[in-house]
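Fold it.
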Amino acid sequence: LELAFEHQQFTALQHITSNLDSSVEPETLHTCAQFFLEHQQYSKAVDLLLLAKKYLEALDICIDKHISITEDLAEQISPDKDAEPEYKKVLFERIGECCMLQGAYHLATKKFTQAGNRVKAMRALLKSGDTEKIIFFAGVSRQKEIYVMAANYLQRLDWRKDPEIMKNIITFYTKGRALESLSGFYDACAQVEIDEYQNYEKALGALSEALKCLNKSEDAGRLHSGG
């Protein structure tokens, strides 16, 4: 290795490093990675940094040099099971952010979830537009903010023609205790019943629900303010 470095024997280095594994000293692996980085062999540099367990550095190269984060690469960059919890959290989040930048939204969701950041995971999932998974994720996460995020997303869909989506919007706003948003949704439902179906009885029912939600919201506001 030293001779190859000294004489800048690029081909020899490629051959030698192809046989290296994690038993080699991390410093040696890092030096080799730097050499390949300087010679614009970015994927090779990343491979060597992964062997040296320099995961954050490898990830930075992936971001800077636009190396696609595949599921396999994401797993290789992921921290060891016995790593420090805080380090694991930081690394999983960085992988998630890189996947977001590259448009790999499902993979980003997975990594943010592993980092314990379900709100960021939901944001990634919303970007994917995968309605089925968004509904499922909101259901298993059981966090107010995530329920509301899911309901807001579902409202942008054609809920008028899909009773299941309408039902999920009401459920998520209710579980998220977003009473004003729920009231607004019932109001929109009433408008649809009038404009599209001329069903004034259903419209009245929806407006009644909207009013109940507003009253509950005002009561909750008074309790919160101590009034």
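The chain has a mean pLDDT of 90.
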